Amino acid sequence: MSHEAQGKSNEWYTAKFIFDALDVKFDLDVASPEDRSFCNVPATRFFTNKNDGLNTGWIGFVWMNPPFGDRKTKTAWINKFIHHGNGIALFPDRTSASWWQLIADNSDAHLFTKSRISFIKPSGELGNQPANGTTLFAIGSKAIQALKNAEKNGLGKMYCSLKV
Pseudo-torsion of CA 147, 18, 157, 54, nearest 10°? Predict the structure, then answer.
């Protein structure tokens, strides 16, 4: 588990209701925590810091909730996701940011969640509600279907790109 200088973990886990709404299984979680005690990702395989998901080859249908570091880090994860071309990625709503526009321009669909999502702390406690909303981005037909499931299940509103 990675830690900030103050000794606090910078890992946050995606709540189970997100995956329940998507109603899909993943082949790979590309940015999983070392300790998956409170990890809800329904995946067969998991890449952690030790596996270095950013620099290791991805296979199959992926889930990506990457570290939300600086812009360069986000852009690297986004480029890898776009190049892989098969999965769902979660990012904060920052529609004016160049990295957000990059993934929006290169995804097949996206879903804006209807409310701000609180993530789970490494202790298992629910964190405070963040200042920003959340966008799920889909690339590939299975990912598009998962976002359709999520919209039908009340998670938010889905939008398809013009290329679909």
Answer: -60
